[in-house]
Specification:
This protein is of the alpha+beta class. The chain folds into two domains: 3-228, no CATH class; 240-525, Rossmann fold. The chain is built from 13 helices and 26 strands. It has helices spanning 3-22, 154-158, 170-182, 194-204, 209-216, 261-274, 291-304, 347-353, 357-365, 425-432, 434-440, 467-478, 485-503, and strands spanning 31-35, 58-62, 68-69, 74-75, 77-81, 85-92, 98-102, 111-112, 118-120, 127-131, 137-146, 166-168, 219-228, 240-246, 280-285, 310-316, 319-323, 333-337, 355-356, 371-377, 406-407, 445-449, 457-458, 483-484, 512-515, 523-525. Strands 3, 6, 7, 8, 11, 12 and 13 form a seven-stranded mixed sheet that branches. The two termini are 44 Å apart.
Length: 526
């Protein structure tokens, strides 16, 4: 169907709905914008997350927990933003045909207030969103919130008519994104991949970091999948998928190698596939685990999973922290995980090459509707911080690998007397979305972390595995079917604490296991 035909059909449907709804809604005219659907391709670049380090968080949800709509159903989207701004809500179908749902010809005022759930449409808007597609499949509703209005949208609104959806040519859509992403900045090149251009600009430091941070803090975006069609059920749900990353060797020789982080990921994959019945796993170890490769693997994880699936993200390796350069962290620090090609020349370098907590949190957002379990065997407080006491007996080395038996990178520049906060990598990620989760009743993930903020994550004395990973795998191999994250908490935490207190006295390790997912909690073992 051509765009012209689709628009004509939508206009007729809008007129019909207007007449019908007038009878029921106190004679208030109700126009209707409809969501069309086609099957999406395997890689729809128009719906990739663009701003991986936003200055504030945005969440988008719909009024049905299962995200499933039938032709004739009405859709209400709910958007929450941590800051005041201007909301642009778009529908993107599988053929990359794009519709601007809000603002529109009926309501052009798109200002949004901080931490106040905004319904599109609300009762007074004078329009409704109706599903009219007869096909079956998945599409996206994308929310973009900007500090200032986007001039590129004004021409679309000038010609908009009440009750008619606004078709957005892909070139105009990309212009909107580039306007939000770069403003007046000039990236090294302008390809079709805006996210890649942003990453390249950071790595090459073409634009001063201060200007990059200012622009990054001027917009945020999020999206959600919905399933529409006439079939009685959506495609098979309840699949179990995992992405596992384990890094013992690093490209940067200034980063201390580990003895068995890569083996942790290999062994955990075997347990998930064997004992736990996972349907699909992706494994990245050592030089396979560059930041770009991890990003691509995460994108594939999002595209290959659906709401209702269980997704495990496992990481074994170094953790660290550096100065917060954009003024968004109260304690002045950002936490990160160290990919194979991470660099520690300075804080700017770390921000360009490490997997930052904000970025990880933005990626987790893309798994909206899945049951997510994040398992991390790393020093989440940053490990060996300058001025922080080296763990007792940590100088001992594994007889097998000849490496030190604790994880964490040296982070320079932190004053020895600096007061520590109780923040660590995943806690920062969760707190970042805490208000938004409360507002829209949507939990994010269950967290299984190897140690508390001020502790080190140790490896087994024989160098076989990380202590936390060892006892978690041991538990999962013998656990009963239906074992959840909560079920593992007491047994695994107690085993880790006992082993470390015996083998590394004076340096306790106490795993943190938090299940903030909605009932039923995610099951690790079928």
């Amino acid at each position: 169907m051509t765009s012209a035909t689709r628009l004509a059909r939508w206009a007729v449907m809008a007129a019909a709905v207007t007449a019908a709804l007038t009878l029921f809604v106190s004679a208030v005219p109700q126009a209707s914008a409809q969501v069309g659907l086609k099957r999406r391709p395997s890689r729809a670049l128009t719906v990739e997350p663009m701003n991986e380090t936003p200055g504030w968080a945005v969440r988008v949800n719909v009024d049905r927990p299962d995200h499933i709509y039938r032709p004739g159903d009405y859709v209400i989207a709910e958007v929450v933003s941590e800051r005041d701004g201007y909301l642009y809500l778009l529908n993107i179908d599988a053929s990359n045909e794009i519709t601007l749902l809000f603002p529109n010809g009926t309501r052009k005022d798109n200002a949004i207030k901080a931490n106040a759930p905004t319904l599109v449409p609300n009762a007074a808007d004078g329009f409704k969103l109706k599903v009219v597609a007869e096909a079956t499949g998945t599409e996206y509703i994308k929310a973009i919130v900007t500090k200032d209005p986007l001039p590129s949208v004004e021409p679309l609104l000038k010609g908009a008519m009440r009750g008619k959806p606004i078709a957005v040519p892909e070139a105009r859509y990309r212009a909107m994104l580039r306007e939000a992403a770069f403003g007046k900045l000039k990236p090294a090149r302008e390809t079709g991949n805006i996210r890649g251009d942003i990453a390249l600009m950071k790595r090459q430091k073409i634009v001063p970091v201060e200007e990059q941070n200012k622009q990054s803090n001027s917009w945020s975006e999020a999206q959600i999948e919905v399933y529409t069609g006439n079939q009685p059920t959506p495609p098979k749900q309840g699949r179990r998928l995992a992405l596992l990353v384990g890094i013992s060797e690093y490209k940067n020789t200034n980063i201390r190698p580990l003895g068995c982080a890569h083996k942790d990921a290999i062994d955990m994959e075997k347990v998930l596939k064997g004992s736990c019945g996972f349907d699909s796993t992706t494994l990245l170890i050592n030089d396979q685990a560059s930041l770009s490769a991890i990003r691509d693997a995460f994108t594939n994880l999002v595209e290959n999973s659906k709401p209702g699936d269980t997704v495990v993200v496992y990481w074994a390796g170094h953790g660290g922290r550096c100065s917060n350069v954009d003024g968004t962290e109260p304690d002045g620090k950002d936490e990160y995980l160290v990919p194979y090609d991470g660099s520690l020349v300075d804080d700017d370098d770390a921000h360009a090459t490490m997997l930052m907590d904000k970025t990880f949190g933005r990626w987790i957002q893309e798994l909206n509707g899945r049951q997510v379990v994040v398992i991390m065997d790393a020093c989440h407080s940053g490990g060996q911080i300058e001025g922080m006491k080296v763990p007792a007996r940590a100088v001992a080395t594994s007889p097998r690998t000849k490496t030190l038996l604790y994880r964490g990178v040296d982070t320079r520049g932190t004053p020895a007397k600096q007061k520590w906060t109780q923040k660590y990598f995943m806690r920062n990620v969760l707190e970042r979305y805490k208000r938004l989760r409360r507002d829209i009743k949507k939990e994010d993930a269950a967290i299984m972390a190897a140690c508390s903020p001020l502790q080190f994550a140790f490896e087994m004395k024989d160098g076989s595995n990380g202590v936390f990973t060892h006892f978690l795998m041991e538990y999962l191999r013998s656990a009963q079917a239906g074992t959840s994250v909560a079920d593992a908490q007491t047994t695994v935490a107690a085993a880790v604490a006992k082993y470390v207190s015996t083998e590394f006295p004076g340096s306790p390790q106490e795993p943190i296991i938090i299940d903030e997912t909605a009932q039923p909690h995610p099951v690790l073992k079928k």
